[in-house]
């Protein structure tokens, strides 16, 4: 049996059913391009019968000249009607897509309850619709909705549905676990059974993650004979999502030896996952398998000293295979080997026995004791390590700020910040408003600096987190603020700690700007090397 | 073979290895109590040999009188030493825990590379350490690190390790997929093999999610004979996390018929998952299987009309079984019965069809839509319900505040609040300093009111939490503040939401004082019933 697996991406169709996921036609085109670069075989773009956005997508995607087959999605014809007169089927034919996914019922309960028609009419709907699109010259993928629930309830009928679809000429029979409630051993048994009955069509699998088993179920189906896997990037999709292709693909390819993507393209997986999450405007979970930022991150001291000897001790694959990388998290649980290897990662040689190394390690320990946490604040850690090596040239110095928040009953709150900096020997005094006090400070800082450093205009804050450290002290407790910043090329994170939420935020904010300016050219009216009055040291 | 499965929770130990997860001793005690209410069988609390926080946990957890067995974690003795003289093993014995998890090597490669000792010495380390703790009267759970990788590399040695542990008297032999790289079919084969060789000890499974297969691997092991499952709430843990007990438990219990929790406790799963995520201050993914907010959410259209006919059409289980609920994203149907039963709890009869009931329900829905959450803010909910019944007599009204935060380089930050209230017809203008802006407001409010309401002197804030709601908007995002207040008799919680952290804190603060004054006598110079200008309505 062939080991070639067709990867069918439905991020643009089933993925957009996920809560909080919404893609414009432009977004869809960008993602389609990226998926094609990755080398997936099928890209399901949407439902041409449903809205103008999808019709636009199918028109414009043809101009991109992609390698992947573009797929249009729709249902079998309406009950008691004629396929050739079905508007949705006509739209699929007219979409310009090379292939069509047709979804039909295979669970007798659904035929009665949802379609409210007879089992016989449902078979005709399936046959007619597939035959119509095949006559139109399309490749047809039949998605048998609720196939596993259907098989468990009425195996004869579920098999009859598949045989009817095969008879109508479907190229692919895809078994859908629509409700996501089926277990891997059931998938294995049922796919094996179907495999023994079908001769012409190929089999595919489409799973959902309601039992946290979508990936396992996809593997199970492939091991039992399925040769197409439908899923989405990052597992986006309705309820708990679809099978996550970012896990399915490396599992099949690296662990089980199937051919999914060109092997030299697999290392674009991490990059693709990030890109799609950016376009969809959804945060990627740090702990996402294979492609998450923490997927190859090591925290414990013993683990770190072992991976420094041999990374296979605590890594199931080499992270580079999927385009990810090893990260060493610095935390109180770990020791000096973490800091040294972090420096190495930054291209700085730090002799563990040197004064610099001992200095920065004891500084980090002291800060961690005060409540700082560097595992989520790589840029703050990098600043500390580079400072220890005398590598940081301060581009400006802080003099003072005032923040004023005013609220009068029945009126909106007003937040203002007044900020004094010294940039290149010149005193800069700025004021700005904001949605809140931290936003006002952010605005003032950007305003003050971007006249000297135009590149800062491309930088923006992407994430802001507040954690109260010792909650028992309530409003007098210390807070830790984490800020994530971005520009076109990079993402970096900084931390600040104080009993005062404004001061903690300011500290993280200031360091995020300092980090952004690490490689900046010195501004013109430079008169002297400036000293940075870090808030960390007050 | 018995269908009873021991649920071993390691949220407090392995869970804290996850990036961004950090728990104080207090947090750990709260979570232990909650896990015990859920009915897990083992609660692994930490590493008594590693730090004072964990030693404190083991001391204080004994005072809670939990049903679950408390477990202390540690490694086998150091190489070339004596178990009885091993400080970490002594600390485990002294911890007061009933059971110990001992982790040992079963992969020959790790014995050479990480431990840097002989295969023979590793066997002795395992034997000695287990025997030492058994002699000390503890139940011993042997966690065989990298068992599956070890078995694949050198099956004889991996088996020798397990036999040695059994011989030393280990009650449980737990097979760990430490790197998370093993597939379900491999788990099945290897567990079956071990099961055939072991007679006295029982088998357990401990998996990691690096291939997005931790849940599937746990099921596979149980189906092959394992009778203990180790995992964490919400799957927290190193890299991609541990097996998620919130998915493992319902899969085993509802789908495969194993006995895990008392069946009447399974519906606390959703609530437990939320609680742990709140204490850990980590957002729960909406699409988390079984317990996520979107796990049973249905977007408009065909799915909704089908589930209104019969929810089995698109739901693999009844959501109530795990304490979750169906959500229809277009038309909000839930909530009303909750509010009515909450009112009942407060001794207020609320006729669901009355204008008051409809009013308060639509108000709560509107506030929830804005980001309020009343699950952790009972006092705010009570104020809303009592307001709807016209039961709240406002003791003071808010006029205005100004908050000023000033920072000059090299000097400590200064926070001041200026507050104007009207109490009993008299304008009260106060100023106060604080550690931070919210503390200054808290001090000003207490100062202004306690001259009229001396009972407020006994009240203090016990807990303060900040949650950024839409992190992508960074410093312009909405924040939700939760404040817990206390006096000698009572504990209550309030919520505030705003784009401005000061305003959100103020709102929660103000309501916590309003709640404290619900039963207070009207102050002496009362002239007229006062109106409260709630910040909620601005």
List the helices and strands and how they pair.
2 copies of one chain form a homodimer.
Chain A: E1 6-9, H1 25-38, E2 42-46, H2 52-61, E3 69-75, H3 87-94, E4 99-105, H4 108-115, H5 119-135, E5 139-145, H6 147-153, H7 155-167, E6 172-177, H8 184-197, E7 202-207, H9 214-223, E8 228-231, H10 245-255, H11 269-280, E9 297-298, H12 301-309, E10 327-328, H13 336-345, H14 355-370, H15 378-388, E11 396-408, E12 414-423, E13 426-434, H16 437-450, E14 460-468, E15 479-486, E16 491-498, H17 501-516
Parallel strand pairs in A: 1-2, 1-8, 2-3, 3-4, 4-5, 5-6, 6-7, 7-8, 9-10
Antiparallel strand pairs in A: 11-12, 12-13, 14-15, 15-16
Helix pairs in contact in A: 1-2, 1-11, 5-7, 6-7, 8-9, 9-10, 12-13, 14-15, 16-17
Structural overview:
The structure is a homodimer of 538-residue chains. With 538 residues, chain A is α/β, with parallel strands linked by helices. The first copy, chain A, has 3 domains: 6-280, TIM Barrel, CATH 3.20.20; 297-388, no CATH class; 396-537, Alpha-isopropylmalate synthase LeuA, regulatory domain (Double Stranded RNA Binding Domain). Helix content of chain A is 37%, strand content 20%. Chain A contains 17 helices and 16 strands. Chain A has helices at residues 25-38, 52-61, 87-94, 108-115, 119-135, 147-153, 155-167, 184-197, 214-223, 245-255, 269-280, 301-309, 336-345, 355-370, 378-388, 437-450, 501-516, and strands at 6-9, 42-46, 69-75, 99-105, 139-145, 172-177, 202-207, 228-231, 297-298, 327-328, 396-408, 414-423, 426-434, 460-468, 479-486, 491-498. In chain A, the strands form 4 sheets. Chain A has an 8-stranded parallel beta barrel with strand order 1-2-3-4-5-6-7-8, surrounded by 9 helices. In chain A, helix 8 (184-197) links the parallel strand 6 and strand 7 (202-207). In chain A, helix 5 (119-135) packs parallel to helix 7 and helix 9 (214-223) runs parallel beside helix 10. The longest helix of chain A has 17 residues, at 119-135. In chain A, 56% of the residues are buried. Mean pLDDT of chain A is 89; it is low at 526-538. The interface between A and B is large, with 126 and 124 residues. Chains A, B: It holds the Pfam family LeuA_dimer. Chains A, B: It comes from Paenibacillus polymyxa (Bacillus polymyxa). Chains A, B: One of its GO terms (molecular function) is 2-isopropylmalate synthase activity. Chains A, B: InterPro entries: 2-isopropylmalate_synth_dimer, AIPM/Hcit_synth_CS, Aldolase_TIM, Citramal_synthase, LeuA/HCS_post-cat, LeuA_allosteric_dom_sf, PYR_CT. Chains A, B: Keywords: Amino-acid biosynthesis, Branched-chain amino acid biosynthesis, Isoleucine biosynthesis, Transferase.
């Amino acid at each position: 049996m062939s080991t070639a697996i067709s990867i069918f991406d439905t991020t643009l169709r089933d993925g957009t059913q996920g809560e909080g996921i919404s893609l414009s036609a432009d977004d869809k085109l960008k993602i389609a391009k990226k998926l094609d670069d990755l080398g997936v075989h099928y890209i399901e773009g949407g439902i041409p019968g449903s809205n103008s956005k999808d019709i636009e997508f199918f028109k414009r995607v043809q101009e991109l000249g992609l390698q992947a087959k573009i797929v249009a999605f729709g249902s079998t014809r309406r009950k008691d009607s004629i396929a050739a007169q079905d508007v949705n089927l006509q739209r699929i034919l007219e979409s310009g897509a090379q292939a069509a996914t047709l979804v039909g019922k295979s669970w007798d309960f659904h035929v009665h309850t949802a379609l409210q028609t007879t089992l016989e009419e449902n078979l005709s709907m399936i046959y007619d619709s597939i035959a119509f699109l095949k006559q139109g010259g399309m490749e047809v993928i039949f998605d048998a909705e609720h196939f596993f629930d259907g098989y468990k309830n009425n195996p004869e009928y579920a098999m009859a549905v598949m045989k009817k679809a095969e008879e109508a000429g479907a190229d692919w029979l895809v078994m859908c676990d629509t409700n996501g409630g089926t277990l891997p051993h059931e998938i294995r048994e049922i796919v094996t059974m179907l495999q023994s009955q079908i001769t012409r069509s190929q089999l595919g699998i489409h799973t959902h993650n309601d039992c946290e088993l979508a990936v396992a179920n996809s593997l199970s189906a492939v091991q039992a004979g399925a040769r197409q896997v439908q899923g989405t990037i990052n597992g986006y999709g309705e309820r708990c999502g679809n099978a996550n292709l970012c896990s399915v693909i490396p599992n099949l390819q690296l662990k089980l030896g199937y051919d999914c993507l060109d092997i030299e393209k697999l290392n674009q997986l991490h990059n693709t996952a990030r890109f799609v999450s950016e376009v969809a405007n959804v945060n990627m979970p740090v702990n996402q398998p294979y492609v998450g930022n923490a997927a190859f991150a090591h925290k414990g001291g013993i683990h770190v000293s072992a991976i420094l000897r041999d990374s296979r001790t605590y890594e199931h694959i080499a992270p580079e295979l999927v385009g990810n990388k090893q990260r060493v998290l610095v935390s109180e649980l770990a020791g000096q080997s973490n800091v040294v290897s972090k420096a190495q990662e930054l291209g700085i040689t730090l002799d563990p026995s040197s004064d610099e190394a001992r200095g920065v390690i004891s500084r980090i320990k002291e800060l961690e004791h005060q409540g700082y946490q560097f595992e989520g604040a790589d840029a703050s850690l990098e600043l500390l390590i580079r400072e220890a090596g005398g590598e940081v040239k301060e581009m400006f110095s802080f003099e003072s700020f005032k923040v004023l928040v005013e609220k009068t009953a029945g009126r909106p709150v007003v937040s203002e910040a007044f900020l004094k900096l010294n940039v290149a020997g010149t005193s800069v005094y700025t004021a700005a408003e904001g949605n809140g006090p931290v936003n006002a400070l952010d605005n003032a800082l950007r305003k003050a600096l971007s006249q000297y450093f135009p590149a800062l205009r491309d930088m923006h804050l992407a994430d802001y987190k507040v954690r109260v450290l010792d909650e028992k002290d309530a409003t007098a407790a210390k807070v830790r603020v984490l800020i994530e910043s971005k520009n076109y090329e990079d993402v970096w994170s900084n931390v600040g700690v104080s009993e005062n939420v404004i001061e903690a935020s300011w500290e993280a904010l200031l360091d995020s700007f300092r980090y952004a300016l690490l490689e900046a050219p010195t501004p013109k009216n430079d008169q002297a090397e400036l000293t940075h009055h870090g808030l960390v040291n007050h």
